[in-house]
Design a protein that fits this description.
Blueprint: H1 2-27, H2 33-63, H3 69-128, H4 131-145, H5 150-167, E1 176-177, H6 178-196, E2 202-207, E3 214-215, H7 221-230, E4 240-247, E5 250-258, H8 265-283, E6 287-294, E7 297-305
Parallel strand pairs: 2-4
Antiparallel strand pairs: 1-3, 4-5, 5-7, 6-7
Helix pairs in contact: 1-2, 1-3, 2-3, 3-8, 4-5, 5-6, 7-8
Length: 306
């Protein structure tokens, strides 16, 4: 009895090894199914005859027990069936795990590449602009506009502050103080207010402490620019509402606006999906973005882990 178990276990191990390291890698990835079928039939035959051969040797020379060729062949086939079940389960499990790892690695490499491209584009843009020339030019325009129009000179000053924020150097992590991002948004709103006057219906609230927190530059502004672009700016009943809130290490941005007439819903979401894609490159899984709409009312929710 023990000798039969030893022979069966040895046979299962040998078949399992041949299937995992020789037959399956040679046939399945290249879809050589005919060759696979032939090799399986061959291995099943060898397993059956091999089991019969070793049982015969053991029975004839050691124990002198009655030898049954049919029974020995059947045991050999059963050993083959067990080994092929183990081998297939092992093969598909390991390939599944490997595919998941390769996919995760590819996505990570893609994210790193996209982030590098964006950083290169931003760096290229900054290199194309000479900050000193730009600031000196804006200061000159401000001085020239001041005697002519206070409104015009204020606009130039706001634009100067916005451009200074855009092209300034960031820290080692590529971040800036959160209050500077909020100041940029406020300047953006101020310029829009000068352009549209009383036609711009806008409410902005800031809750929590925005000091001593850092954020990647121009993270919040694309969502707000999307609302200005696609929202109805003149609706007093439904003004554009912007809420920026901080809680511990989290930042929340909520935007509610009425979609402008003539703007298709698909246009709004195409812009938001592109914004979310770029945000994913920078913040990866440290953010949550949700879009909701009811009739023509659109809501944007953003949560960032600072």
């Amino acid at each position: 009895m023990i000798q039969n178990v030893v022979i069966s276990v040895s046979e299962i191990i040998i078949c399992f090894y041949l299937l995992i390291h020789r037959i399956l890698p040679y046939t399945l990835p290249t879809k050589r199914y005919r060759i696979l079928f032939f090799l399986l039939i061959t291995l099943a035959t060898l397993s059956s005859l091999g089991n019969a051969f070793f049982v015969y040797l053991y029975s004839h020379f050691i124990t002198n027990n009655t030898f049954s060729f049919y029974k020995s062949c059947t045991v050999g086939l059963n050993n083959f069936y067990l080994s092929i079940h183990f081998a297939l389960a092992y093969w598909f499990a390991t390939n599944f795990v490997q595919n998941v790892r390769e996919q995760s690695k590819a996505e990570l490499q893609k994210s790193i590449l996209e982030k590098s491209i964006l950083e290169a584009e931003l760096s290229s843009l900054k290199n194309q602009i000479n900050p000193h020339f730009f600031y000196n030019s804006l200061n000159f325009l401000y001085a020239q506009a001041l005697p002519v129009s206070r409104r015009l000179s204020d606009s130039v000053m706001l634009l100067s502050e916005m451009m200074r924020y855009i092209i300034k150097e960031n820290d080692a992590e590529g971040k800036v103080p959160l209050e500077q991002e909020v100041k940029y948004i406020q300047n953006y709103f101020a310029i829009q207010q000068m352009q549209f006057g009383e036609n711009l219906q806008l409410e902005i609230d800031i809750i929590g402490n925005i000091n001593y927190r850092r954020i990647h530059p121009l993270t919040l502004s694309p969502f707000i620019e999307n609302a200005i672009k696609n929202g109805d700016l003149s609706s007093a009943e439904q003004p554009i509402k912007v809420l920026i809130e901080t809680q511990e290490n989290d930042l929340f941005l909520t935007i509610i606006y009425l979609r402008k007439k003539g703007i298709e819903e698909s246009e709004v979401y195409d812009d938001l999906i592109e914004i979310r894609r770029k945000l994913y490159i920078v913040y990866f899984n440290n953010h949550v973005v949700k879009f909701e709409h009811s009739e023509n009312i659109h809501k944007i929710f953003l949560k960032l882990s600072l």
